[in-house]
Amino acid sequence: MTTPATEPPLDTGAYQALFDASPKTTKVVTLANLTRVGARPPLGQYIALLWARRNFLWRDARARVGSNSRESVLGKLWLVLEPVINGLTYYLIFGVIMGASRGVTNFVGYLVIGVFLFQFTTKCTTGGTRAVTSNTNMIRAFTFPRAALPIAVVLRELLSYLWALAALAALIYLLPEQETFTWRVALVPVVLVLQVMFTLGLALFLARWTVAIRDLATIVPLVSRIWLYASCVFFSFDTLEDRGLPPIYGTVMQYNPMFQVLDMVRDCVLYATIPDLTSWLILGGWAVGMLVIGFVSFWRAEESYGR
Fold this sequence. Notes:
Its main location: membrane. This protein is mainly alpha-helical.
């Protein structure tokens, strides 16, 4: 009968000698480089994070515009047909039935410029109210600068807007009363850039405050409709005095940013004139001011989104 083998006794002295011979190192753990999850980064870093995602935002906008058009039979034709149909409807109501075309040179061009350009801002502001509230699950699941959501809305509408602008140019320069192409048209892109800046700032501002006041999602479309009628989309600014309105209405109208956008584009395209300096200053002030206010207010509430 064999006895089980037993392990030799542990030589603790050898292990202690080995431990004493090993070099002693001390590591200091600091929390200085750690940040709280979901914390709002500084404004400069926030802008850098958005800029780093610019390619994704642009490709995502292109993909969404393409996917939306593929779901319908006419596809991207709807990007052109929708504003054309709206313009035709407003022409029949205001131009033919209500006689708003009296005293307006090239009322068709006057009307389609108003309808096409105002529709871009309306869609961006309406989409901006839902940009954050409709993506709550994604905000809770991923860490990214939340301003990317309203920016993505404006990018998608901008891509659709380019198709509408091509249709607008065709209507103005091919349909009766045809306009003469002049060098003043080169000023139109500058006006449109200011419009996009203003619209982006407004979309950011509305996206931020709709999170706090959910009723804004319902109120904004109603206010946009009033804004549409107050921006001289269907009638001429010069006819306000003929309608017996007090001069204060004309003053308020001139400080309306969308009125300035429409009026300046009409000057360049329809009347071959350069918008005056006052118009540039008013629209430029609205564009820069609204973009700064909208972006900063959205950034300041960064930590509240998704709660």
